[in-house]
Design brief:
Radius of gyration: 17 Å
Number of domains: 1
Order of helices and strands: HHHHH
Shape: elongated
Helix content: 55-70%
Length: about 100
Amino acid sequence: MLRANLSVLPLRWPIILGMAFSGFFDGILLHQLLQWHHFLSLATGPAMQDIRTQILGDGLFHVAVYMLTVAGLYGLWRHRSVVSGPGSGRRLIGGVLLGFGT
C-alpha cells in the first residue's frame, strides 16, 4: 500500500491556483481592459455575435475562474502545515507557474 508523503506540498493545488491566475490575466487584461476578444468570439450565428451573449460568456468564464481560485486556496489551506515547510515555497511558485502555462 502506498502512503502519501504528508511533509511535501502536493502540486495539484498550486497548479489549480496558477490556472486561476491565468484565467484572471486573460479575463481582466485581454477581455475587459484591452477588449481584444471575448470568450465566445469565434462562435458563429447571429445570436452568438450579440454583445450581450458575448458578455454573458465572459461572465460565466469569470465564475469558473473564481471557482478554480476557491478550490486552489482551499487545497492550500488544507495543506497549510506543509506550505511553510522547507522547499515548499519553490514547489508553490513552480506549481503556480506550471498552472499558469496550461
